[in-house]
Amino acid sequence: MRITEAAQRLDTSPRMLRYRDLLGLLPPVREPAAVGHRGGIPAAGRAAGRHRQFGEDDLAAVSLALEIEQRYDISPAALAFGLRVLAEPGVRADVAELARRTGRIRPLPARALEFEKERALRLLNLAPGRTPPTRAGGSRRSAHLSTRP
């Protein structure tokens, strides 16, 4: 179905559906098998000159997003960021660190930190208490690091 019909069924506007699509709150567009077009680059996963068709999966995703936004009193942009936190490990780590620093979640137990330190050392191929091998002739950086307390 076209965007106007989808918007009517969801009791929202076509503009809001386009906004949600830009935020990544709709399932990706699934294109039919190789439909040739005249060398143009398709915009946002659509074949040149074609409009997005909304299916039941799209309507269900928007409906769930609307429920979550209402239940937790958040904006579509905040929900999109929440999805990004779940999908991108670097963003998740940054948000978790902020949560620890602000007391929203507990800090990692010392035992877990020790495990992570040992794991990092193994990855660097170092035994605990051993210093990293220096380059031939040494370098300023390794000399500087070795003089730290």
Write structural notes for this entry.
- It contains seven helices and no strands.
- Mean pLDDT is 79; it is low at 33-45 and 139-144.
- The protein has 149 residues and is an all-alpha fold.
- The N and C termini lie far apart (67 Å).
- Helix 4 crosses helix 5.
* Distance from first to last alpha carbon: 67 Å
Question: Compute the gyration radius: what is it?
Answer: 25 Å
The tally of helices reads: 7
* CATH fold-level label: Multidrug-efflux Transporter Regulator, Chain: A, Domain 2
How many structural domains can be distinguished in the coordinates? 1
Strand-pairing-aware structural class: mainly alpha
What is the class in the CATH system? Mainly Alpha
Taking the sheet with the most strands, its summary is:
none
Overall body shape: elongated
Q: Helices and strands, in N-to-C order? A: HHHHHHH
Query: Could you name the ranges where pLDDT drops below 50 across 5 or more consecutive residues?
Result: 33-45, 139-144
Summarize the structure.
With 149 residues, this protein is an all-alpha fold. It is built from seven helices and no strands. The protein is elongated, with a radius of gyration of 25 Å.
SSE layout:
Elements: H1 3-10, H2 14-23, H3 56-72, H4 76-87, H5 89-101, H6 110-123, H7 140-146
Helix pairs in contact: 4-5
